[in-house]
Amino acid sequence: MPIRVLIVDDHGDFRRRARRLLEADGLEVVGEAADGASGIDAARRLHPDVVLLDLQLPDTTGFVVAAEIANGTPAPPVVITSTREGSDFEAMARRNGARGFLGKAELSGAALERLIA
């Protein structure tokens, strides 16, 4: 079975590119959300295998959303993503319940799978 992904990002163009890229790599995108509140709701409703979560959202930060998702049951792994340099955010992502950080330029199905393995 393919890994089921929820994409939470406020930029529609990125969500579309990420969907195409991940699906081409054999993953299944089960949903998308454009803000933190919708992302939390979608994670609870859709039960994805992983949440790809933008660092900056219009209503909150990815760290807040990651912590909220991590407190749910079941709690899918969360990978925070951004166009910013990852070394600045890796430790903070992990402290907030995320598996790690993946730069948007480095996004691939294989990179996402490595982080959640």
Task: Provide tags for this entry.
117 residues; Rossmann fold; 40% helix
SSE blueprint and pairings:
Layout: E1 4-8, H1 12-24, E2 28-33, H2 36-46, E3 50-54, H3 62-70, E4 78-82, H4 90-95, E5 100-103, H5 109-116
Parallel strand pairs: 1-2, 1-3, 3-4, 4-5
Helix pairs in contact: 2-3
* Oligomeric state as shown: single chain
Under CATH, the topology is which? Answer: Rossmann fold
Instruction: Provide the CATH architecture.
Output: 3-Layer(aba) Sandwich
Q: What's the name of the CATH homologous superfamily?
A: Response regulator
End-to-end separation: 15 Å
CATH class: Alpha Beta
Question: Averaging pLDDT over every residue, what do you get?
Answer: 93
Strand segment tally:
5
**Helix-strand category:** alpha/beta
Number of helices: 5
Largest sheet geometry = 5 strands, parallel
Query: Which strand order spans the largest sheet, edge to edge or round the barrel?
Result: 2-1-3-4-5
Low-confidence stretches: none
Q: What general form does the structure show?
A: globular
**What count of domains describes the coordinates?**
1
